[in-house]
Amino acid sequence: MPRFAPLDHGSHRETRDALHAYARILGAWMTSCRAPRKHWWQGSLRPAFSGLTTGVIHAGADDFELVLDFQRSELHARTTGGEAIAEPLVGQSAARLATRLTRFLVQSGGLDGRFVPTGEHIADETAAGAGYSAACAQTIARAWGDVAAAMTALRAGIREETSPIQLWPHHFDLSMVWLPDETIPGQDPGDPDNADKQMNFGFTLGDDTVPEPYFYVTAYPVPDAFPSLPLPVGTTWRTAGFNGAVLLYESLIASRDPQGYLLDLWNGLLLAGRRHMLTHSR
Question: What 3-state DSSP class applies to 90?
Answer without folding.
Answer: strand
